[in-house]
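B., you asked whether I could sanity-check this one before it goes into the benchmark set. Here's the sequence:
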Amino acid sequence: MLAFDIAQFFPSLNYYILTTILKKASFNANIVSFFTSYLSNRTTQYTWESFVFPYFNVNIGVEQGSVLLPTLLALYFAPILYILKKRQCNLFSLILTSILSFINNSLIVVQEKDFNKTNTLLLTSYNMTANILINFDLTIKYNKSEVFHFSRNFQDPNPDLNL
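And here's what the prediction gave me:
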């Protein structure tokens, strides 16, 4: 099982890609216009004690904690999961590979009896995922990804999984 943290994508959601997704999903033009306005031409400013930093442009990302964040992330991430599942089905056809996505995490699950085959399938799925994410202006942070191997054989040593 391969886990990666979706929360890492919050600061880098590309509003142009998001509005393209909304248009392709046939959302009402007013909704697309709202999100385009909400996510573009924004500025922010930081203060620390008495020091006030100047305003600067923020044209990508969604503020963590925004009430719209879960909805925007789900809309942004849905086509990624769809493309990944389709590619896995085409490539693996008879092998059980699942994608589970939660509020801030996703899992790629491979069920196979042979450890080497499992590791190969996870590596392939990981690389597929990374390539799809690049097309959506996102990247996986390797230090926020984890690989788990579960075995029914208690004699199995803890394997070295290298993605």
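One thing to flag: Residues 2-147 form one domain. Otherwise nothing jumped out at me.
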